[in-house]
Design a protein that fits this description.
7-stranded mixed sheet; 13 strands; binds pyridoxal-5'-phosphate; Aspartate Aminotransferase, domain 2; 4-stranded antiparallel sheet; 13 helices; alpha/beta; Aspartate Aminotransferase, domain 1
Length: about 425
């Protein structure tokens, strides 16, 4: 046993055993709802923040979809259900996950494409302003698309820097925004450190400068409660294959606040976002409301699985999901302190749970090789350069025992295969 349960010479428990935490976990039973959650070849799945596990009910839903609406309904299903689906699924996401009233969310495209559309829409509404702001540690696609949009529109990108184990704070944003700023783009939960940005305060600072705010929710949607309406957010997007378990390449969602919908226009004028797609008219006239943010034919098949996860989260309650997420990351940090720190690993995530999403990152110079070896043995975290192992904890499918097995395996790999540093 790698983990010392008790301090030498005293009864004080240093870390609660995983078995005890699992026994006391009110959400423990949800794990059995996922496909092959107890497949012994997967010792520890610690990457639900990159690709969530499928739900058993999703297999049934997909089979039913093929047999029913697609197989028998055929093209008629577009009229009967599918045209509305991006907006009805969007409304349910808005209600359960995003803290948003109906009519402000649609499912469409990928996060990358929606980032492009929303960035262009936001910048278009602030014509004459010359700068956009993003942080250096944001996910690559967010930075790349920002660079591309800036080049296309003749704007300057101003980069924010933040400590690599936390992230951007309101004062950092307030210091760079001003009358030249058109748009600020940040991630709510940082993909590497897991830091939770202060959505309300940052959005306020951006608005004080007269600019618009676009939040990327990829690492918070489904695991960290979000209040888009209450925070007065303008624009948001996020993917559905991470904590929303929509499956590989499942479509993203976008939010545009009702008060902005009239003034904003997105740059990809497809027929499905037009006011009357089947009029086949000579010119593009945008649909009313959220539909105009759709471009081409919506990925209806690919948006089926995420519906199951949204309902599972509704059943468990997002507050309870967040509580378990905090307990899991607390346990992960305790284990990392106990067994990884003595081997030279360094925590690169916030210690304050209020500032931490549902994953932690631990750095060690040998973690690239360690991760490759772990995957072979069925222990699956992920690696993020330059030297971080990311331990992602998806509260409804991850047990404390699984987490503990994973961290023990990381320690074993570091210790038993100690190569040159
Ligand atoms: C996962 C993630 C993405 C992914 O974008 P795709 O278009 O789905 O590939 C983008 N941004 C952030 C912050 C992410 O975490």
């Amino acid at each position: 046993m790698l983990i010392r349960r008790y301090q030498i010479g005293g009864p004080a428990m240093t870390i609660a055993p995983a078995s005890q935490l699992d026994a006391a976990d009110p959400l423990a039973a949800f794990r059995s709802r996922f496909v092959a959650a107890d497949d012994p070849s997967v010792v520890a799945y610690l990457d639900g923040n990159s690709l969530g596990r499928p739900l058993a009910v999703t297999a049934e839903r997909l089979a039913g979809f093929v047999a029913g609406p697609w197989g028998r309904g055929l093209i008629r299903s577009w009229d009967e259900a599918w045209m509305a689906e991006p907006l009805t699924v969007g409304d349910r996401l808005a209600e359960v996950i995003l803290g948003a009233a109906p009519g402000q969310v649609t499912v469409a495209d990928s996060t990358s494409v929606l980032l492009y559309k929303l960035m262009r829409a936001g910048i278009g509404a602030r014509a004459g302003r010359s700068e956009v702001v993003i942080d250096r540690d944001n996910f690559p696609t967010d930075r790349f698309i920002m660079e591309g949009v800036a080049a296309e529109c003749g704007l300057v990108v101003r980069y924010l820097s933040a400590p690599h184990d936390t992230g951007v704070r309101p004062a950092d944003v307030a210091a760079v925004v001003g009358e030249r700023t058109a748009l600020v783009v940040l991630s709510h939960v940082a993909y590497r450190s897991g830091f939770i940005a202060d959505m309300a305060a940052i959005t306020r600072a951006v608005h004080d400068a007269g600019a618009l705010m676009l939040w990327d929710l990829c690492h918070s949607a489904g695991v960290v409660p979000v209040e888009l309406d209450a925070c007065d957010v303008d624009l948001a997007t996020g993917c559905t294959y991470k904590y929303l378990n929509g499956g590989p390449g499942s479509p993203a969602f976008c939010y545009v606040a009702t008060r902005r919908q009239e003034e904003l226009s997105q740059p990809i004028w497809g027929w499905m976002g037009a006011s009357d797609p089947f009029a086949m008219g000579p010119e593009y006239r945008p649909a009313q409301g959220m539909r105009k943010f759709i471009s081409g034919t919506p990925p209806v098949l690919a948006m089926q699985p995420l519906k199951d996860m949204v309902e599972l989260i509704a059943e468990a309650g997002l507050t309870a999901v967040r509580q378990k997420s905090v307990a899991l990351t607390e346990h992960a940090i305790a284990l990392a302190d106990e067994v990884l720190a003595p081997l030279g690993a360094v925590l690169a995530s916030p210690r304050d749970a209020a500032e931490r999403g549902s994953h932690i990152t631990v750095d060690h110079p040998r973690f690239a090789a360690v991760t490759a070896a772990l995957w072979k043995g069925g222990v699956i975290p992920d690696f993020r350069p330059p030297d971080g192992i990311r331990i992602g904890l998806s509260p409804l499918s991850t047990s404390f025992a699984e987490l503990e097995r994973g961290v023990e395996a990381i320690a074993r790999e570091l210790r038993d295969h100690a190569g040159p540093h």
